[in-house]
Structures are given as C-alpha cells and as structure tokens.
Amino acid sequence: MIIAIFTSFTFVTAFAESPSAIGGQRGEDSNRQEEQNHSDTNGRQHHQHRIAYTFATADIPIPDHPGRIAFPEDINDHGVIVTNFFLDGGYTLIADPVKRKSSNFETTTFNCTGLAFADTAAFSINDKGQIAGYCVNAPTAPSKQFGFVRNRSGNHILLDFPGADGTGAFGINDRGQVVGQFYGPLRDDHGGALSYRFHCFIWDNGQYKQLDFPRDNTYVSCGSINKRGQVLGEYITVTLDNEYLEHGWFIYDNGSFILDFPASFEHVGGPAIFLADMNNDGQIIGQRSNGDPDWNGLFLYDDGKFYDIELPPEFAYADVRGINNKGQFVGMYAVQVGIDPFYGWPIYENHGYVATPAPPKRSQDLVAKAR
Fold it and tell me: Pairing with 290, which of 86, 165, 244, 320 sits 20 to 30 Å away (CA)?
C-alpha cells in the first residue's frame, strides 16, 4: 500500500546551532550558546545549551482502517520508519519511502505468528532494514514472549535467552547486534522480583551475553546499541520489597559503565529523566519531566553536553522515541484543538513527527543580526 505520511511541516526558529556532529564531522560551532550549566539544591542540571530542529508531522495510516494512524517508534538513515498498532492484537508496521527523498511510503504489516491477540511490537530499525522487537507465541496462556529480528526480506528469527521465562529485543545496530532484556524464573528464596529477575543481554551472531549493572538488588533494561558496541541502559536499585532506592541511566562501553546523567526521582515525586535512544555518534535523545519549566522538555546529549530542544509553540506536549545517525528523531506530539463544552477541559489531538536538525546559521547572518 502506498501512503503519504508527511501531512504538514512546522519549522522551529534556529537560535542556536546544533552540534556539528549531527550529519557531519565535529568542529567549532559558529553560533552555539556556551552558557555554563548549573545545578540547583536537588542536583538538577539546568541545561543552557540549545539546539534547533524542524518538525514534520508524520501520521502513518493503518492499512484498511481509514481514520486510524500510528506514530513512529524509530527511523533509520534511509527514512524507513517502524511503528506499532493494535487491532485484534499488536502488529508492527514498516513505512518505507518509495524514493529516498519522497513523502510517499510503502507499508508492510508484520506479526510473528499471524494469530489474533498474539502480540508483536517493534522498537528499533537499522540501516540494513533489520528490525528488533518482541512477540508472543500464542494468544492465550500458556504463552511465552520472545525477542525477534526481522530482516528486510521479511524473514525473522526468534531470540530466547537460555533459561529465561521471557525475552524482549529493544535495539539493533548496523552490525546486527541486538540488546534487550530477559526475565528469569520466579524464586521463593529471595525478595521482590525487581531485585533479581530482570537482566540485560547482548546478542551477537547467535551468542548471548548477560549484562547487569554492578550493584546488588538491581533491575536493568537495555534499549539501544550503536555500531561502536556502546549500550544504553537503565537501572533501578530496589529493596527486597521492590521499593525504589535509586533510578538511573548508563552507557556500557567495553566493560565500563559511564554515568553522565542525572538520577531520576519520579519515585519520590521529583524530576524524572528518560533516555530514549542512541546513535552511532553516541548522541542520545531523551526527555525530562515531572519538574519545573526549566527542567521539563526534550534534549539531546552529545559529547558530554546536554542541549535543550525547542518545540513548535503549538505543541502542548511531545515525547521522543528513536534517533538515527543523521540526527533525525521521531515521536508523538499533542496539540489543543478545542474545549470540552460540558467540562471546560482542553481537547487534544495526537500526531506523529519526524524532527530534523535545522541548518546552521551562516556567519554573515550572525554578523548582520549583531549589527
């Protein structure tokens, strides 16, 4: 089925140049605001660096269901988008541009089993068109969750970590390496399940490697792996009663855990941080929430610095999901379209989007503006 998924364009005014690593070699930025980050008494960083993107609406119609749309989960460098939708169970939808610079896409629906209510969901697509996700093998119990890798031709393999009760694949790089999470059997000789049951894995050419954060009683999940082999992951340290003690994020790089990110305090009503995806340059797209206006919003992490992402003024809310090696990222946004006549509440409408780094300002433009 051929569809046109870009329905409108919204442009953000570029008031600070993006990091030059986006779509090119690192170098000196002509108009990046180099204001010093600072922290408040809770250790929250106020990120003064800013970056501009153009946002294009990307509503992906669900085949044979007029009026129903899906929102992008991930995008590769060729503009191929992967997303999911739910009808009689969960399905994955792949939107492939007919021409590389076209807004017309050919869509393909995928489900591991083809059985109603045997859910399939995808989260990552690489530049070879390989897709990683998870699916269940039966619509009702007894059933088991498997990870999967689907190649461009439509064939797929299932991933089943040895001895696991269930496996999910969340990220795949251009070398075909996969990361995800598996959960083991329940135990009656230990505390709460979060403290022992959930682990990361790396799958490489049929071989599994378990990856855990080096702390006792800690839940882990890994969502992204890049071509360098760096892994983006999440950890939650808990009590034996499953009560959160610490929630944070890490980059696993050749045996080392890099902890460059603020802790997430949503479990105690404080500011939260979410890291969605990482590309081959080590750039990470994420979101801050549950705080004040200086904290909340989307951001890009690049070379040790955080850059706030300016949203179009009509966006009431936006989330973020996947990033490619060109620096494009995808997600969902909401706009207010009215007021409920009875309750007086705002009415919102949701759409998908693709965000592209805005072109750098020319030095002569900056000089003219300074005058």
Answer: 86
Tokens of 328: 């494009």
Tokens describing residue 174: 């251009």
Please check whether residue 98 is in contact with residue 78, taking contact to mean a CB–CB distance below 8 angstroms: no
Closest to 123 in 3D by CA, of 198, 181, 68: 181
- Domain ranges, residue 122: 49-59+116-370
Asked, for residue 100, whether it belongs to a domain, the answer is no
The ranges of the chain with pLDDT < 70 are: 1-48, 98-104, 361-371
Tally Cβ neighbours within 10 Å of residue 1: 11
Q: Is residue 202 part of a domain?
A: yes
pLDDT at residue 48 in the model: 61
What pLDDT was estimated at residue 103? 53
How many domains is the chain built from?
A: 1
Structure tokens, 208: 């599994």
Alpha helices in 88-130 (DSSP H): none
DSSP letters spanning 73-90: SEE-TT--EEEEEEESEE
Tell me the pTM: 0.85
347-350: long-range contacts, CB 8 A cutoff, minimum separation 24: 348/316, 348/317, 350/71
Distance CA 7, CA 3 (A): 11
Opening angle at CA 205, ends 201 and 209, nearest 5: 25
Q: Are 157 and 148 in contact (CB under 8 A)?
A: yes
User: Residue 262 has which token pair?
Assistant: 């603020």
Q: What angle do CA 215, 265, 35 make, to 5 degrees?
A: 105
